[in-house]
Amino acid sequence: MKNDKGVSIIEIMIAMTILAVVLIAMMSMFQVGITQTVLSGDITTATQLANEKIEEIRNLPFYVQYTGTKQDIDDFYSPAGFNNEDYDAEDSTTYVQEDDPNFPDYERHVTIQYVDSNIDAIVVGTFNPNDDEPPSNLLKVSVNVIWTTDTGARREHKEMTLIGR
Q: How far is CA 1 from the centre of its chain?
């Protein structure tokens, strides 16, 4: 029995300290993982909302001539406040804001601009729908989705596409 050795209180305290440090580090990793999972879900929702709006606009006719009246995509896509003359290539803050009742924490800002072959915006305020042709054969549709996280941080996700005639 003299050869039996026990565990001293100092060894137990060292082992508990090491275990506590490892557990605290692992708990902080779980916190970061949960935060990133929530952020990933928010970005997925924002991407879905942006793509949904882009597809809705993409499925509208680009330019159609009716009896005596010519219309373009922005005449078909006309949420409240949308007007050709409101858009100015130099004013990148001009947009139409749409809210989805199914996602009240998200705002969608939609901008439709005529662009030239270099993707430079054309001032569409000069476009008269009664002219023979639209100012360009390309439209740039931008959808910026903005939301506020649970922590109060303001996030945004932007999608852009070109629609050709």
A: 73
How many domains are there within the chain? Answer: 1
Lowest-pLDDT range of 19-23, 90-94, 100-104: 90-94
Given the DSSP bridges, would you call strands 69-72 and 96-100 parallel, antiparallel or unpaired?
A: unpaired
| Location of structure tokens 């596409």 | 161
Q: Which of 114, 81, 99 is nearest to 147 (CA)?
A: 99
Model-level pTM?
Answer: 0.67
DSSP letter assigned to residue 97: E
83 or 150, greater pLDDT? 150
Residue 94 phi/psi, 5° resolution? -80, 125
Average pLDDT, the chain: 77
Burial track 39-55 (b if 16+ CB lie within 10 A, e otherwise): eeebeebbeebbeebbe
Copy the structure tokens of residue 123: 């001032």
* Domain containing residue 54: 9-164
